[in-house]
Amino acid sequence: MTSSPTNSSTTPGTGPLETPRRTGLIIFAWLWVGLPLAYGVYELVLKAKQLFTG
Amino acid sequence: MTPPLAPAGWSRWLVPPAALSVHLSIGQAYAWSVFKPALESALGLSGTASALPFQLGIVMLGLSAAFGGTLVERNGPRWAMTVALCCFSSGFLLAALGAATEQYWLIVFGYGFVGGIGLGIGYISPVSTLIKWFPDRPGMATGIAIMGFGGGALIASPWSAQMLESYGTDSGGIALAFLTHGLVYAVFMSLGVLLVRVPRPGDRPSQGTARPAAGALISTAQVSARSAVRTPQFWCLWVVLCMNVTAGIGILEKAAPMITDFFAKTDTPVSVSAAAGFVALLSAANMAGRIGWSSTSDLIGRKNMYRVYLGVGAVMYLLIALFGDTAKPLFVLCALVILSFYGGGFATIPAYLKDLFGTYQVGAIHGRLLTAWSTAGVLGPLIVNGVADSQEAAGRSGSGLYGLSFTIMIGLLVVGFVANELVRPVNPRHHVPTPNASKEEADDQLADEQQHDARDRAA
């Protein structure tokens, strides 16, 4: 069997992918991007508050 | 380069952070203005000259996304992220050399030209991969990544400002700041290069139990990038994106002076710091719209989502034009909604393309469609600034400066709405033939996928 260009949404094999693996790596990866983003959002909130207090 | 196939059991939830590590980095481009005052005083530049690296960077973003999309599809996301890392990071390093030697052309070339290629390739690098991993929620998946582009400026803006404060704003301090940016972004983006994986053809997640929205234009056929640009659907979406972005820029471009002018003659005028707070709030709405509305599109369908962006967006502009100067909360609320639609429009377009043209070369098609962004980037500021200047010359003031701009924006949104209504399923003559129909006509990417599949089965 060959992989046709139309099969991306119909191929089987969903089972193993539905269960998250490598939990530690997933947490590390999300912290890697989440912490800087949280810093940016915190700084944004501080600035946005000026609309109501300034 | 062979696309990096995921090993068995690889979690698809590792792919969004990979995409975010790239988009949060390249989103720094929108924080370029932090460097402008320092460059102007250190190198004696005008305001126009100090904006050149950013402007060239955005031009290169559009060009490299449009022309590099097919290469990205062929070589895979790891190759694309590596190119983005090398270009974006070395762009900063070249800019550091330029600042240290006070050669401004090197800053323009490094940050604008070399870094700009990194912006374009990096922007489209994870799109196709995310859609393949999340066929059940493509809007949410691409929304996460493209939200990162908005978030990148939020991080870089205070971070770069603090760095300049520490290193100083002379040429040596700016050079050190550029050097630090280049090195830190190289490390930060490397997570994406290491983590990104393409699902194996035999292991691709299915649409699961997610039901497409009623009347959704979801095709199971595939269209190549070359064919896609020959379809009316592509150009309808081009107009949709261009109009939506132009309308958002209409507010974003002059947000601070706009809110000040609107309430200048009222009992509650807006101070400079409050106007800065308003701009920050708009950035938050822009970012929230990217993930929020894009995820909503998975539930209500892409065409309906753009009906909301363009139709409700036009109503919001109308409300501001009619009643904006009478109630500050109404003005702020409408502006926030418009900006959330602006962000949502960016983030939902890859999933719309996937619905119409399939996953086959969606990244390359997305790259070509981003020329609409470049066009809007010129069109939006031209309209708003041009109209405001002409109204000022005509003796108008306050909210009167913007009435005509808003009317034009409403008109553009209506044009976009009509273009969205014209979107129909792609004619089958543009579909890529399946291997059973004609193996010769399947292109090299399809052959790659088949080889991977055959290798997997042999193993």
Can you put this structure into words, describing what you see?
The complex is a heterodimer of chains A (54) and B (459). Chain A is an all-alpha fold and 54 residues long. Chain A is built from three helices and no strands. The longest helix of chain A has 26 residues, at 23-48. Chain A is rod-shaped and about 50 Å long. Helices cover 73% and strands 0% of the residues of chain B. The two termini of chain B are 21 Å apart. At the A-B interface, helix 1, helix 2 and helix 3 of A face helix 1, helix 8, helix 9, helix 13 and helix 19 of B.
Give a concise summary.
Helices cover 63% and strands 0% of the residues of chain A. By secondary structure, chain A is mainly alpha-helical. Chain B has 19 helices and no strands.
Biggest sheet character of chain A? none
Number of domains of chain B: 2
**What do we call the CATH homologous superfamily of the largest domain in chain B?**
MFS general substrate transporter like domains
Mean pLDDT of chain A: 72
Q: Which class do the helix and strand fractions of chain B yield?
A: mainly alpha
Query: What is the approximate shape of chain A?
Result: rod-shaped
* E-strand count of chain B: 0
Stretches of chain A where pLDDT falls below 50 for ≥5 residues? 1-17
What can be said about the biggest beta sheet of chain B?
none
